[in-house]
Amino acid sequence: MTENTTAPQPSLEELLRTTDPARRRKDILMRTLITSAFVITMIPLVSLTWTVVSRGIGRLDGYFLLHSMRGVFGGMDAGGIYHAIVGTVEITLFAALISVPIGLLTAIYLVEYGGGRPLSKVITFLVDVMTGIPSIVAGLFAYALFALLLGPGAKMGVIGSVALSVLMIPVVVRSSEEMLRLVPNELREASLALGVPRWLTIVKVVLRTSVAGLTTGVMLAIARVIGETAPLLITVGVVDSINFNLFDGRMMTLPVYVYRQYAQGLVACSPGDTSCVADITVQRAWAAALTLFLIVMLLNLIGRLVTRFFAPKIR
Predict the structure, then answer these.
(1) Which of 65, 224, 285, 307 suits 87 as a labelling partner, its CA being 20 to 30 A distant?
(2) Does residue 251 contact residue 87 with C-beta atoms inside 8 Å?
(3) Per DSSP, what are the bridge partners of residue 276?
(4) Region of residue 297 (left: phi > 0; alpha: psi -120 to 50; beta: else)
(5) Is 141 exposed, middle or buried (0-12, 13-18, 19+ CB in 10 A)?
(6) Cα separations (Å) of 19 from 12, 77, 195?
(7) In the predicted model, what is the mean pLDDT of residues 45-70?
(8) Tens of pLDDT along 149-176?
(9) Which whole number is the average pLDDT over 91-102?
(10) C-alpha to C-alpha distance for 279 and 276, rounded to whole angstroms
């Protein structure tokens, strides 16, 4: 008799446990590349955060936040950014008030009504063009527009808001358009099948479903423009006093404040003058930059909270 020398076949469990060496090497390689990319991406972010916080935290206190630069000159150990905070918040919020309705309604038209119409293609092309506009061009446009209406030399907060809205609108349109397209068509069809008007379907179903993404898009648009300097230098100017009126007079903003303080450089102090701080302008610039950084973080936190509480529940 001949013996059966056939090797036993591996069980299904053993086959599932075994891995192909080539696939395992590829998996390790991709894991290494992805992890390395993440680390490389985080290095400048962590470095930037550490630099701004370490250099700005020393000057950032209650006095700095609640006082303006009125009457401050030279190397005086005084002055603050209250007027710049007021200008930044008012100008940015008014720009959002202009941009968000226009951008959202444009996105709704492109997604819900545009289809393949020629007008929608023209709008899409113009939005793409506006996305690449340099910020200085937006400032020149707003300045020229109000120069025709109010005369040359007009500088006020509302002009800065218009300039920022030119930069915000394409961001809002693009982000809102993508979020609206993610809403399943089945939801629209189910609502329309029940006899709900199209506009009410958009308000109650489409917008309600995509509120989280829309909020994120608006926050990104605000973060895009809140740090702009060039258009605000042209349209709003600089001032050392507090101005709450967007429609009258110049206003200071945090980006312009940082630029102005840092551009002044070190102060020439007289020998023996203990009240003079040579690097006071640099200290103010870093503290203002940290304040702007914290404001952007606060806006993103608000966006996260809105997303959490108003997004549709899946369970």
Answers:
(1) 307
(2) yes
(3) 76
(4) alpha
(5) middle
(6) 13, 68, 55
(7) 90
(8) 888 888 999 999 999 999 999 999 999 9
(9) 94
(10) 9
